Amino acid sequence: MTVLSRAANTHHIAVIGGGPAGLMAADVLSVRGLKVTLFERMPSPARKLLLAGRGGLNLTHSEDAARFLTRYGAAAVHLKKAVEDFSPIDLRAFSESLGQPTFVGSSGRVFPQAMKASPLLRAWLRRLAGAGVVFALRHCWRGWDGEGRLVFETPEGTKIVAADATVLALGGASWPRLGSDGGWVAILREAGIHITPLRPANCGFRAAWSAHFAQRFAGAPLKRIALMFEGQSVRGEAIVTREGIEGGAVYALSAPLRDALAQAGEALLQIDLRPDLSREVLAQRLAAPRGKQSMANVLRKAAGLSPVAIGLVNEAVQGRTGQLSAYDLAAQIKAVPVRLTATAPIGRAISTAGGIAFAEMDAHFMLRRRPGIFAAGEMLDWEAPTGGYLLQASFATGAAAARGVLHYLESRAARARS
Predict the structure, then answer these.
(1) Which DSSP string do the residues of 258-282 spell out, in sequence order?
(2) pLDDT tens digits, residue range 63-97?
(3) How far is CA 89 from the centre of its chain?
(4) DSSP per-residue codes, 87-118
(5) Which long-range contacts does 322-328 make (Cβ < 8 Å, 24+ apart)?
């Protein structure tokens, strides 16, 4: 067992977790001249960030600050100061400082011009190394020893690390193969810290498809649709999977759908396959004489439905499309019911809800039961939709926790002088 002690007269800060929150905390602290070691259990940092950037790295969103904060729901009051102190404008300036200028897309989402995460990450890691940040890879955090020191399992065996302060940024529990497996939950609960159970967020759902529908249409996209649930409506796209349904529009409703499933065991999602047409116009088109056309051809030509959309309607009416009146068929197309039976596994979710309860932390993101221990990112009890809100809060809370460390060290020094 190796024991690493503090260097004489030097504050040593441990940052545990190499995702956006941890990297930002290390950045803020190293700029202030502190000795920072970033511990990461994977062979390289920010693996989930790299995966997120494959389809275009959505850093943040350009909407006004008041609306932006509403995306965090009940957690907005706890995240407000952090997001204001490291705002979307600040994040864009930060990206530019790494040689990655940004642009605002047509949806208001903000991306680096390179669209990928890898150029930004490479520049960031170079800057951190230049500021003296030490990267300790393949270090899996196991909690504290009897003296309050950090315990890590490494390929070389157990290591004990003494630090003046620690920032925990271990992420949630989605995509565990990339590093965040939620293993920290048991450690903190054992320390008496209340953790709201981790749940999938921005996730897909299981649906009771027929075997024929699942086999034929798995992987098929549903484009230009609207999803409706309990008075909420979201336009966008979705994808049929063998087990159910996922995609951007589904993710936008995932929180209320997930909560309904938890309460009732099922949730009834409705899909408007032609949101730009009224039921009356659709019914008029469907009422036209069809001659010898099959019902599938009528739905394709008159209603403009794709094969997977026609399959969905058939699923809903059990193949009885030809027996419905034009008006009733139009009503089905405008609100296809899909009975959801479960969320997709948390490991496949984009993000997670739940985490360290905000009541367990002070205004500086320090754990009340563990002075000198701070937390940031998806470890905290918040969730947000996709669109840049997830990364923005991760960056912002990482910076806020780092500022909390500085405040803690300054307060401790002031007490020592008095």
Answers:
(1) HHHHHHHS-EEEEEES-TTS-HHHH
(2) 999 999 999 999 999 999 999 999 999 999 999 99
(3) 20
(4) -HHHHHHHHHHTT--EEE-TTSEEEETT-SSH
(5) 322/295, 326/283, 326/284, 326/286, 326/287, 327/279, 327/283
pLDDT in tens, 252-264: 999 999 999 999 9
Q: Which residues of 345-367 are buried (b: 16+ CB within 10 A; e: fewer)?
A: ebeebbbbbbbbebebbeebbbb
Query: Distance between CA 153 and CA 349 in Å, rounded?
Result: 27
Q: CB–CB of 17/173 below 8 Å?
A: no
Amino acid, res. 249: A
Q: How far apart are CA 1 and CA 111, in angstroms?
A: 45
Which ranges of 53-179 would DSSP assign to H, the alpha helix? 65-70, 76-85, 88-97, 118-130
Using CA atoms, how far apart are residues 118 and 135, in angstroms rounded to an integer? Answer: 18
Q: Is 90 exceeded by the pLDDT of residue 5?
A: no
Taking CA atoms, 116 is separated from 119, 171, 307, in Å, by 7, 21, 34
- Map residue 346 onto helix, strand or coil: helix
Which amino acid belongs to residue 171?
Answer: G
Q: Is beta strand 244-246 parallel, antiparallel or unpaired with respect to 205-207? A: antiparallel
The rounded distance, in Å, linking the Cα atoms of 53 and 385 is 16
Span 401-417, pLDDT tens digits: 999 999 999 999 898 88
Q: pTM above 0.90?
A: yes
In the numeric block, which tokens belong to residue 263? 């309460």
DSSP 8: T
**Residue 138: is it exposed, middle or buried by C-beta count within 10 angstroms (0-12/13-18/19+)?**
middle
CB-based contact 378:181 (threshold 8 Å): no
Rounded-to-integer distance, Cα 401 and Cα 414, Å:
20
Tokens of 344: 């997709």
| CA atoms of 418 and 397, how far apart (whole Å) | 31
Task: Please name the amino acid found at residue 363.
Answer: A
pLDDT at 408 (0 to 100) = 97
Domains of the chain by range and CATH?
Answer: 2-200+353-417 (3.50.50.60), 205-343 (no CATH)
Q: Are 392 and 83 spatial neighbours (Cβ–Cβ below 8 Å)?
A: yes
Q: How far apart are the first and last CA of the chain?
A: 38
The single-letter code of the amino acid at 228 is M
